[in-house]
Amino acid sequence: MLEELETLQTQALATLEQIGGADALPQWYRTHLGRKGNLTELLRGLGQLAPEERPAVGQKGNAVKKALEEAFATRQEILREAELEASLNAEPLDISLPGRPVAMGRLHLTTRMLRQMRAIFAEMGFQVYEAPEVETDENNFELLNIPPYHPARDMWDTFRVNDKVVLRTHTSPGQIRCMREYHPDPIRVILPGKCYRYEQITPRSEHQFFQVEGLAVGHGIRMTDLIGTMAEFARTMHGPDRRLRIRGSYFPFTEPSIEMDMDCIICEGQGCRICKYSGWLEVAGAGMVHPKVLANGGYDPAEWSGFAFGLGVERPAMLHHGIEDIRNFYANDLRFLRQF
Ligand code: PHE
Questions:
Q1: Per residue in 187-206, pLDDT tens?
Q2: What spacing in Å lies between the alpha carbon of 286 and ligand 1's midpoint?
Q3: I need a labelling partner for 6 at 20 to 30 A (CA). Which of 76, 116, 312, 318 fits?
């Protein structure tokens, strides 16, 4: 039986050597080393041997098994390498192909607009003051001279967090924060940021949008300072040919209040969907800071005066680029965003 084992090993190794492709390896393994392979078959005869012969045959059996296993592993490795090499030669890799380009990000159109506006006001000496988007009802309304029962609350449809906390409906509550922090120094700041209103979404209005608030508090500040500042801004931003118009208006936190309009860039004042066929676009709400608001901020209205304005951000960007639908700003459509 020792001889038979020896022969089995020799023959098995010889057939292994002749195998030319990895495909044939499993079959060889089954034939020689499998559960029903010829080594197993042969060793089944172990029981019929005389007891004293068994250990030697058993040992030989294990040695043959080990030798075959090792030879199999080596052959497998060799064949795999050969196949890899063959496939590399058949389809050469072009390592000079350029890599995939890295996708570059860019600033959102709104961000670029905000930076442009900041730069214009910086030229006029305005600093930037940051205020939170989640505000108290007190700052958003009450301290801006809008008591709970006041009908002016209807001007802003509000997202409420609870009785006392809202998503700010405008950047004006930042005026209170700023005055309370800067008092008793004079103030010249803009407050850029996002606002939220519980509104129907249309091509002209979104429920989230940016504003740039302006606030100047000092001695002897007058309405003409406000108009001059606004005119300077409009000229720099939209070009010297823009026509402006000032209308009397109402805001609870300014007195007197005005609204500033500019002729529609999209239709050149002819009337279109964007300007609601009026030829004019509302650019800013503004006015002289109401004495009560000055007092709420810690400034004595007998000594101090100031102006405030609230500018839209998306609207002028739409004018600049001829964008007809404000919903594009938040639709996250890269085909739109990549144009700017
Ligand atoms: N906060 C006002 C609005 O959102 C705009 C405004 C700001 C008006 C400052 C006057 C002064 O409609």
A1: 999 999 999 999 888 887 89
A2: 6
A3: 76
Answer yes or no: is the C-beta of 289 below 6 A from any ligand 1 atom.
no
Q: Cα of 310 to ligand 1 centre, how many Å?
A: 5
Q: Is the CB of 286 under 6 A from ligand 1?
A: yes
**pLDDT the model gives residue 2:** 84
For 260, the 3-state DSSP assignment is strand
End-to-end CA distance of the chain: 86
Q: Ligand 1: which atom is nearest the Cα of residue 309?
A: 9
Instruction: Dig out the tokens for 164 from the structure.
Output: 């006392």
Handedness of CA 185, 189, 194, 197 (dihedral sign): positive
Q: Which runs of consecutive H residues, i.e. helices, occur in the chain? A: 2-18, 25-33, 38-43, 54-90, 109-123, 137-140, 173-182, 223-238, 291-296, 314-321, 334-337
CB of residue 254 inside a 6 A radius of ligand 1? yes
Residue nearest to atom 3 of ligand 1 (CA): 170
Q: Is the pTM of this model over 0.90?
A: no
Instruction: Tell me the average pLDDT across 290-300.
Output: 98
Q: Is 299 in the pocket of ligand 1 (CB under 6 A)?
A: no
The verdict on the CB of residue 210 being under 6 Å from ligand 1 is no
**Taking the CA of residue 147 as centre, how many other CA atoms within 13 Å lie in the half-sphere pointing to its CB?**
3
For residue 170, give the ligand 1 atom closest to its CA. Answer: 4
pLDDT tens digits along 253-274? 999 999 999 888 777 778 887 7
Q: Name 103's Cβ contacts closer than 8 Å, sequence gap at least 6.
A: none
Residue 124 burial class via C-beta count within 10 angstroms: exposed 0-12, middle 13-18, buried 19 and up: middle
| Domains, the chain | 2-89 (no CATH), 109-337 (3.30.930.10)
In the chain, the amino acid numbered 169 is T
- What separation in Å is there between the alpha carbon of 259 and the centre of ligand 1? 9
Residue to substitute in 172, 250, 258 for testing ligand 1 pocket (most ligand atoms within 8 angstroms of CB): 172
